[in-house]
Amino acid sequence: MAPNKRNKRLGSLSNTRPPTVKSNHAKLSAKATRTLIRSHHQLLKARAQAEKAGDEARVSSIDAQINANGGLESYQTASKLGQSLERGGDSSKLLIDWIKPQLNEWDTALPKLRVLEVGALSTKNACSRTPSLDVTRIDLNSQESGILKQDFMERPLPSTDAERFNLISLSLVLNYVPDATGRGEMLKRCVKFLTSECPFSFPPTLFLVLPVACVDNSRYLTENRLLEILACLGFVMVQSKRTSKLIYQLWNHTGAVSPKPFKKEMLNPGHKRNNFAIILNKG
């Protein structure tokens, strides 16, 4: 199959927001689910490299492999199962727990907090069921009504605070972006979509979820380097939690942006480490 615009777009963004899935829907084993997700990520990475090298034949071959594996739909199904109740649950539950103290101050006469959920897969997760939140959900391959089919990197930039968001959720999204520069651009773009308003002590906030391996087993990224990258974009981490598979973080945006480039550099040499990285270009 020849590469097309849609396939190219699939390689540019990450969309794996975990919904609540009933356990009796889990038809794949945990091992099979992990294998499918890992394979999809590896193919996307290879596709990005082939596209950068101008190897159209290689791109076409990888596209065929991705489609043979069920494409994005199959990946999203595996992601749903991977975040089902029996395999860890809905990550937005933790988000709601973390911001509950501020939400308890919310007055029903006030406008709801605006939330942008990138890579949404469900309209029934915890943040969607919270009355004080007005959730906008986007995904490259919308599977439900109520989720807008849209690439975050192509969403028009807001021109006023009324078009911006109090909170952006990137739950298992950044790791889906196939190249290190694209990940940096996504984080920079989040800043442009966050409001400068702070209703009832609620600062502009980013909810970030990544596989632990991205920061614990990478040659090019550590948790400290991730903190440095986000700090220069004006973020300060206020909450963090780890499980055996995932790292959850809540970042408040201070508005004090100090642009600084971060290149791909060796931080943790090791034969068995992965190559996950974030490149931040200045400007």
From TrEMBL:
Top-rank taxon, per record: Eukaryota
InterPro entries documented for this protein: Bmt2/SAMTOR, SAM-dependent_MTases_sf
Record's protein name: 25S rRNA adenine-N(1) methyltransferase
UniProt entry tagged with the keyword Acetylation: no
GO CC terms: nucleolus
EC number: 2.1.1.-
A molecular-function term among this protein's GO annotations: rRNA (adenine) methyltransferase activity
Primary enzyme class: transferase
Similarity comment: Belongs to the BMT2 family.
Principal location class: nucleus
Subcellular location: Nucleus, Nucleolus
Role noted for this protein: S-adenosyl-L-methionine-dependent methyltransferase that specifically methylates the N(1) position of an adenine present in helix 65 in 25S rRNA.
